[in-house]
Amino acid sequence: MGISMNRRSLLHAGLGITGGLALLRGAPASAAPAQSAADAPDPSSQPWYELGLLADPIMESQLLHFLAATYSAQADVGEVLDTAHRINAGDDWSWPTEWSSTADRIRAMGDASLAGRHPLSAGQAYLRAANYYRAALIHHPEPSHPSVVETGRKAVEAYNKAITLLKLPAVAVRIPYEGTRLPGYFFRSPCAHAMAPLLVFQQGRDAWPEESKYVIDAALARGYHCLIVHAPGQGMAIRELGLPFRPDWEKVITPVIDFAVRIAGVDPRRIALLGWSMGGALVPRAAAFERRIKILIPNPGVLNWGQAMFTQFGELFPDLLPLLDSDPAAFDAKMAQLMDAVFLYRWYMRDSMNKHGARTPSELLFKLRDFTNVPVVDRIRCRTLVMDGTAEAFSRGQAKQLFDALTCPKDYLLFTEEDTGLLHCQEGASAVANQRMFDWLDEYL
Predict the structure, then answer these.
(1) Could you read off the pLDDT of 123-171 as tens digits, one per residue?
(2) What are the structural domain ranges in the chain?
(3) Residue 160: phi, psi to the nearest 5?
(4) Strand, coil or helix: 442
(5) At CA 47, angle to CA 42 and CA 50, rounded to 5?
(6) In the structure, how many helices (H) and strands (E) does the chain have?
């Protein structure tokens, strides 16, 4: 099966493509021949986000995500680039091995500073180490490997140490959910008045909520409390509790809101729900049923996530998709062959099956069909800001479709090449993303 690589479209997508298929339009990566200065492409003809540091296109997009974490002091440029330099994209285990190595080294720096009674330096190191442990898991080849839970626990431990040493206004919480408790953090704004609004932040398929510290910091500085949660399919909820994604996301968000309204200082009349990446597909569903949500912000907005995934899958494997309904076993057999041959497919399918609780590729796709907001979009009543980008490869028009389908008070916020926020979830443009979103949010919350 011939598959062409569109490198620019691969890199447009950024991190957490909320399904990954848009990033898989590529043949197995191979080393490019050396170029002379005369043969080198004109730098002005390439967009700034084409880094050219890793042969694997998904790894490249994920690398940009962790470079962007320098904005919130969760990474350092040299540490990220040094790690990338050591990664061999042709080795399944190279990515988690090298990120874990970096994380261990930075954690040891934190230990040394703490032993020397330098708590601020120690906290800063632990904050970065936690992020690098999370980086190790974002492209892990074996979701069920024991090192996954072990590395996740290291991330949590380092993050909790950073909270204490840096005196971040955060408290670890456990939110009751269907016989268990979802881990998360409540951040109390030092700028808030007696009763203040709350932002409930929902991450996507790949990133952990802690990685969005730049949003949390901006919220706290503006007087908003913030609540983040490891929801089913995400973070430690999938890795330690084994909870997969589910399409009826109101069953997740309603317990979160139940918990939130009992927190002292939270104004129950001013609750905003933000969804990043795949979260932009999940939070509209929740808002259709949970009336205590006053503001909804999906970024990017998604009307029908299942259909978006099927469209991308059909473009990638046009001869394979028809087998899904007619002969699922044959579909799985052919997909297994592709997975054996191409690491990108092997990683994506294993990772997605794990996060959706699917045993086979066909079962995964059958599950994805249920992730749609079409039947419930007209039930959304809260004011909604639909965010989008001109190079938002995942949504592929879904944000505008959601906006057009909404019957509630609504606004559409488009990021472009000019403001540098054009990528998936404004990757690499944290400052402009915060400014434009919070300027809007201040008007209504």
Answers:
(1) 999 999 999 999 999 999 999 999 999 999 999 999 999 999 999 999 9
(2) 7-24+50-150, 169-304+371-444, 307-368
(3) -65, -35
(4) helix
(5) 95
(6) 17, 8
Could you give phi then psi for residue 366, rounded to 5 degrees? -60, -40
Exposed/middle/buried for residue 271 (C-beta within 10 Å: 0-12, 13-18, 19+): buried
283-304 pLDDT, tens digit per residue, is: 999 999 999 999 999 999 999 9
Tell me the CATH architecture of domain 7-24+50-150: Up-down Bundle (1.20)
Whose CA is closest to 219, among 245, 188, 252?
188
Helix (H) or strand (E) holding 296: strand 295-299
In three-state secondary structure terms, 170 is: strand
What count of other Cβ atoms lies within 10 Å of the Cβ of residue 268?
15
Beta bridge partners of 264: none
Q: How far apart are CA 434 and CA 390, in angstroms?
A: 17
User: What is the Cα–Cα distance from 59 to 310, expressed in whole angstroms?
Assistant: 23
Tell me, yes or no, if the two domains 7-24+50-150 and 169-304+371-444 fold the same way.
Answer: no
Return all residues near 117 (Cβ < 8 A) that are at least 6 apart. Answer: none
DSSP label of 127: H
For residue 138, the number of C-alpha atoms closer than 13 Å in the C-beta half-sphere is 30
Please report, for residues 342, 435, 439, the alpha-carbon distance to residue 222 in angstroms, rounded to integers and kept in the order given. 46, 11, 10
Beta bridge partners of 174: 183
Spatial distance between the Cα atoms of 171 and 210, rounded to a whole number of angstroms: 13
Rounded to an integer, what distance in angstroms lies between the CA atom of residue 136 and that of residue 138?
A: 6
Q: Give percent helix, percent strand, percent coil of the chain, each to the nearest 5.
A: 50, 15, 40
In CATH, the number for domain 169-304+371-444 is 3.40.50.1820
In the beta sheet, which residues pair with residue 363? none
- Whether residue 300 has a cis bond before it, omega within 30° of 0: yes
Q: Which of 291, 317, 287, 289 is nearest to 302 (CA)?
A: 287
